[in-house]
Amino acid sequence: MSYLKKKKKKKKKVPVAEMLVRLSVRNFKNKKSKAARLVKKRHQSENEQDLQEAAIQLLNHHQNLGDLLLEVSPPPPKVLCSKEGSNCGKPEVQTLPVNGDSILVSALQRQASKLGVPVSVLSARTIVERIWELSMVPEGTSRSVLLTTEKRDKMACLILSSKNLLSHNAFSRLLFCKEIWKAEKPPVLEVVWHLHKESIVSLEELLESNSKSAAEIDWLHNDLRLLCSDPGDPTQGSEVCWQIFSDFVTVLVRNAFQESQELSKLKRIPQVCFTVLDAMLSWVLGAVSNDKQEQESLRVKAATFWSHGFDVSVYRGAISVGTLKQFFIHTLTQILTYEPQLKVSDAIGMQSEWSFAKTCPLLTSLYRKLFVLFTAEELMAHLQQVLETHEVNWQNVLSCVSTLLVCQVQAQQKLKDLLTHLLTSAFEVYELESMITAFLLARQASLEGPAVFISYSEWFKISFGNASSYHGNSKKSLVFLLKFLSDLVPFEPPQYLKVHVLHPPYVPTKYRPLLLEYVSLAKTRLADLKVSIEEMGLYEDLSAVEAAAQPQCQAEQDVEKAIVLFVNMRRIPASVMEASIFRRPYYMSRFLPALLSPRVLPDKPDSQMTFIESLKKADKIPASLYSTYIQACQKEKQRQLEGVSVEMKSDKPREPLCLLKAGLNELTHLISDQDKVEGTVDVSAQIALVSEVLKSIINDSSGDLFKEPSIKLNVVAPKLEPLETEVTDLIMKSFCQNLLESSKNNPPNRHGNWASLYVKMLCGHRLLLKIVLTRLLQLTCHQGPSLSGVHILGLSAFVIDLHESERMVPLVDTGVHLVSFTECVTQLLTCSTEESMTFCLRFCIAAVSYGLCKLETGSVEEMQAYVPHGIFKKLQYLIPRLAAEARVESVEDGAESVWSILSDPCLSWKSSALALWRHYNFRKLAKLAEFKLTFKDWVMAELDVQPGRDALSESERQEYQHWACYQQYLQACPDVGGCAGDLVTACTVLINAILDHSQRSKTVNSMQPLGSVLCWYSNTCYTDIICRLQEMVFDLELMQARAVAAGALHEDGHFLFRLIRERFSKIQINQSLSSQLVQQQELHAITRIITSLPPSVLLRTNLEKKKISLKCEDFFHFVNAEQKNGCFRACVLPYDLTVHFFRGLLSSSIACKKPSHAVNAVFTECYLKCPLLMSSAGFWWPKLEPVLWSQWSRLIEEPVPAELQKMSDCQIWARSALCGKAGSPPSDSPFVLAAFLYFSFLRQSSNINIGAVLGGIDEDCEQLLVFLLFFSVVDLISSKLHHTETMDLLRAKECCIDIVKHLEDTGNLIILFHVQEKGQSPYQLLYTMMPDLQIELMPLAFYCLFPSLDQNLLSSVMKRQDFLHVALQMYSGMVKLFLDGVDVSTSRDKQPSSKQVDSAELMGAQQFLLQVISQCPQESFAYRKQLEDACADLDPEVKAALTFRLNPIDNDSLYEEPDFL
User: Fold this and answer.
1) For residue 317, what are the contacts with CB-CB under 8 A and spacing of at least 6?
2) Reported pTM
3) How many CB atoms lie within 10 A of CB 462?
4) Is 166 exposed, middle or buried (0-12, 13-18, 19+ CB in 10 A)?
5) Least CB-packed of 230, 306, 317, 571 within 10 Å?
């Protein structure tokens, strides 16, 4: 040992014995020098013996045995140089022959013989005397357990002398121990350690030799305390102190907790060691309890030094694990039962101060050290045993529970099991101890936050909130629970009383008085504590430990939460409605003032303004208060315009931010040094402390946030307050620094679990998590291209760790749908421009590489948990697009570590991308269905690209798209997202992707101004993808033509219309306003796709009996079922679609033997099956005619088909009719004539009346008039529906009245209003042309038209026998429209609005119907059953009037004289 060697630089003092020997030798040589030289060799041995005897004789006259013990020692090593000089300066020990050993023994023997005592006694006494001298301290100096450097050198000599005596059997250990205890004062602890260390006398022997156990216990206990407080000499004292501590603690533990097979012969020593260890533990616990205010006091520092005795590393394998477990379990028991002075009532009121973060760090450190050797199950079982068998210190027990839950995740479930066991036992035998233990443990666990345990309010509701709870099986159990809660009331903190009052236990109705007694008692206690439930917030965390916010602050938080819920649910939250009724004082005095605080109102109503308007409509805001709010907002705006400064809210104090920085810095320090045995535990504890600091900065007092399954994020423009930004930047910066520190020497799979703990801690603070996620969106999705590589690496790793803990991260409400946060980030990582593609690629490379590194050697199934499939798909899209080398199948299989890809600074992003692309783990994941980039995924991503800002040129993009379509996906099997060589499948995928992308883009851009749809078409690769679709459809058309020519065509309908039917069938499941808008957008996109494809797609050629014919059933069905609801005006298709069909008809007819006949046949079919096409042709004919004539002339040199010619003739006839020169009709279809006539009438600029036009038509034209009335009624409905100008509405009504006048004599005046009934041909097809919404509004048209007729005309109409029946049906429809409040789309701008039949209109319709009932002739009541059925759902007044007319005989009896006889 280094400190046993002498290192004095001064000249060495010659010992007395050696000096005497030299003197005797010199005298002897002087007397007989000549003789000695002659016989030197022969008498050498004799001379040595003579010299020794002479020296002994001389010592007898100069003898001091104490000095002799310190002087006899081997000489120090001499430094020699080798001949070569290479080892000069290196010590080489030479042992010189010294006879000091025999001299010391001989001296002791002679002295012992003189004194008449044994040599062993004399040697023991002599050594003890020297030891006592070494233990002496100067007066006025406090006692020390360590030696000075000089005394330590002397002790080294004494040790060597003692070893010499032992080797000559001149020393007795037993006598030595007895002599030590006879001394005036006990030896210094370091002296005892030297004796123990050098095997002179062990500590066990020394302690066993003393019969006074109390004295030696007191000595050892005091000296160990001094040892922990006395570091000694700074140069060597610390090392010596630590070695003394380590060796003695090992001795104490080994002897105090001996296993059965290790029992020694020493009988007293185990109890002594046991007692000393307990005394030291009590000293440590005393320091913890007495020095809470001064955590850095000397006593706490000394106790902290002793706590190192619970480090497993101290024992270095000298003690078995079983012994250490006994020691740790005993220590834990002693801690839990140390001075159990606090009562249960004290624990109930004080336990909020005993959370992990508030507990003394020394105590939590001690707990963590004791937990190392045990599992959570073992620790929880021991805790249960201690609670059941001992009287405990509740403060230590509950702080131990907190530490265990924070540091061992598995303990959380074990605690739940223990709580279940305790509650079950309590209600089985009605035991109060188990009950109070369960409540204390549950409350303590809830103090650590939702990341560790559910809130107390949740636990209480789960345990006692339903009929199947522990107390729900009998009245006795219920009384037991309520009695227990009542007994707690005087000691309960207010937050727990509020939980019990607002979330009371389940009580059957007949026992409600028992519960009311407890509630009354609890409210009285709350009143005594000056805590008002009425002033409590709507969303206040009932089980929060911290004091509730001031009422006004709480009201502001309630307003924010209520607005969030209102936006999410699209209705007023139930909690607000309940508060307005049952908690009206708080609602009126706190909530509404906070909601209606003056501000500058936005131009477009925001969520708060919408919420206020909804409350006003529901009569939840007094009109006077609302008007005052509007005036105050106007004044606020005026003040700002005038430059008056507005007082800003002061920021939170800066001190918590300093604490946060310090805590995060300490966390980084711990993570950078994870080689320690307890590194993970220390990190876990530090994260818990950081969590506590964050609570004080971001106060999340809204407990209901944790009940919500999602959090609302503003993904379009995420914004944060300055303080929130500063806090989140500190959190993100710390994570990035921790990642870099961890990655200096180890890949991510050896980083430990700090990142997971870090993320889980954030998940425990829902409000903080929302802020962090918002900041993450700001950085990644809005500032991404400006980030450095280190930032990208850190943020991507953070996203991966969030994905790994996805179970704890709530879903994100983007305003459109609920998604996980990683999916939200993936959706917002756009790839539309070169800049965004480059950033997205770098981010995804870092994220996927980090995820693969975390489980590099795991299975593919395990890797899925670490790699988000959305980010993985982004890479599969971007790498081949930006790196053409990836499009070539590589034979290389990258086997290098993924970490090398991520950490190599020499690799560019392109090289990193290719290396990752070829890595075997990447390829394995790419084969999984969930991770495969399908053809549809590719199309959707490609549609996002803006051609003008693409990373590829136009030619490069076209080359890449051809590679993707024809090489990557067309031939690939469906399992990997391909099309298996099927062009129909490929076209279907392309169309579906275009339509889905259109809907998604319009949803995302819903906040953009009108016209964004056109921007979508122009700012994306829509045109490129349409080109790819056109190429494939053209190939399909060629295949179709060949199949028709070969007679091998299997006609099963065109894939395009099958696809359309499937898509609309999914949309029409829900007939809400949003679904109708989606349907219109879908229809617009489909129409655009159809018109971009070859016109021949709309018709199918069919070969029957070697004759080719044209089939249009699919297109007709599409028009009749879907397109009629998307017309730009009623009964008229868009021009593009109309001309596309007729151009396709003319083109396809060339394949037929007689093209003109084929065209005529299709026109005839149109009259019968799709009249909407014909009415559209009539509307667009001035534009349509030159196009069709020109095309026909290009296709074939024949006269135009007869039906086409008839259309032109109808247009000429309609113009002539408007001029009063109508001749005979050119067509035998009154419907076509009516369409041309009506639309020509609308286009004419003169103010000619339709009545005058009809007067010029002399032919019998009843059907023509009915069809004209149909078109005019449709326009009337459109005028009322789309809120057009009043003149348009009046003109439409006048037109209808003029036509009705001409139909007065025909008898078919009202046939339009019940044409839906079967058997009403030839008008049956009219309703197939009308949009579904207009059909529903036919009652509105009826009661708009007929009350406007003059009395004579109306009287003539009422003579019709079925008029009353139709009027009743229409009124029933009006009532239904009024009650349902039908949601309809308005004008062509597609802005949604709610249209409901006005009450005035309904009242007018009722008065008109009552008039009709009273004036209709008796013949109208002939069909009694039909009339009764029609009036079944009408209002009582109408029903009474109708009943009166249906029973004329009974009515007359009312006027008969009574018969009293």
Assistant:
1) none
2) 0.66
3) 11
4) middle
5) 317
- Any bridge partners for residue 1103, and if so which? 1108
> Which residues partner with 92 through β-bridges?
78
Indicate the DSSP class of residue 650.
P
Number of neighbouring beta carbons within 10 Å of residue 713:
18
- Closest Cα partner for 1242 from 1268, 1280, 1224, 1223? 1268
Distance of CA 1339 to the CA centre of its chain: 51
Q: What three-state secondary structure class fits 1132?
A: strand
Q: How many CB atoms lie within 10 A of CB 311?
A: 15
Is residue 1025 within 8 Å of residue 939, measured between CB atoms? yes
Q: How far apart are CA 1168 and CA 1322, in angstroms?
A: 10
Q: Cα 372 to the chain's mean position, in Å? A: 31
**Any idea of the CA torsion for 1330, 1333, 1335, 1337, to the nearest 10 degrees?**
-130
- Give the burial string for 228-263 (b: 16+ CB within 10 Å, else e): bbbebbeeebeebbeebbbbbbbbbbbbbbbeeeee
H/E element, 1403: helix 1399-1415
> Using CA atoms, how far apart are residues 869 and 823, in angstroms rounded to an integer?
9
Q: What is the pLDDT of residues 320-367, one digit of tens each?
A: 888 999 999 999 999 999 988 888 888 888 888 888 888 888 898 899
Question: What DSSP line would sit under 1350-1391, residue for residue?
Answer: -HHHHHHHHTSTTHHHHHHHHHHHHHHHHHHT-EEE-STT--
Dump pLDDT digits (tens) for 655-704.
Answer: 678 888 888 888 888 887 765 444 556 787 788 888 888 887 876 554 44
Residue in the block written with tokens 């005052």 = 628
Q: Which residues contact 51 (CB under 8 A, 6 or more apart)?
A: 21, 24, 25, 28
Query: From the CB of residue 903, how many other CB atoms can be counted at a distance below 10 Å?
Result: 15
DSSP conformation class of 970: S
Tokens of 1322: 């030839």
Reported as half-sphere exposure (CB side, CA atoms, 13 A), residue 269 has a value of 19
Instruction: Compute CA distances 99 → 58, 96, 1249, 1344, whole Å.
Output: 15, 10, 149, 138
SS (H, E, C) 232-252: CCCCCHHHHHHHHHHHHHHHH
Q: Which two tokens stand for residue 1162?
A: 């299709």
Distance CA(1455)–CA(885), nearest Å, equals 103
pLDDT tens sequence across 997-1056: 888 765 554 433 333 344 445 578 889 999 999 999 998 888 877 877 666 555 566 788
What DSSP assignment string belongs to 449-467? -TTTS--HHHHHHHHHSST
d(CA 1139, CA 1186): 11
Strand partners, 1102: 1109
Of 770-779, 858-867, 1175-1184, 1317-1326, least confident by mean pLDDT is 1317-1326
Calculate the CA 135 to chain-centre distance: 66
**Both structure tokens of 37:** 């030289």
Q: How far apart are CA 530 and CA 88, in angstroms?
A: 86
Looking at residue 385, what is its pLDDT?
93
657-685 as b/e, with b when 16 or more CB fall inside 10 Å? bebbeebbeebbebbbebeeebbbbbbbb
Cα 320 from Cα 15, distance rounded (Å): 47
Nearest-angstrom CA–CA distance, 1283 and 20 = 133
Reduced to 3 states (helix: H, G, I; strand: E, B; else coil), residue 91 is strand
Alpha carbon distance 1135, 188 (integer Å):
110
Q: How far apart are the first and last CA of the chain?
A: 142
Beta strands 78-79; 811-813: pairing state = unpaired
Is residue 710 classed as helix, strand or coil in its secondary structure? strand
- Residue 98 has, within 13 A of its CA and on its CB side, a CA count of 17
How remote is the C-alpha of 996 from its chain's centroid? Answer: 26
Task: Confirm if 310 and 371 have CB atoms less than 8 A apart.
Answer: no
Q: Which residue has the tokens 């503003």?
A: 714
C-alpha of 1011 from chain center: 35
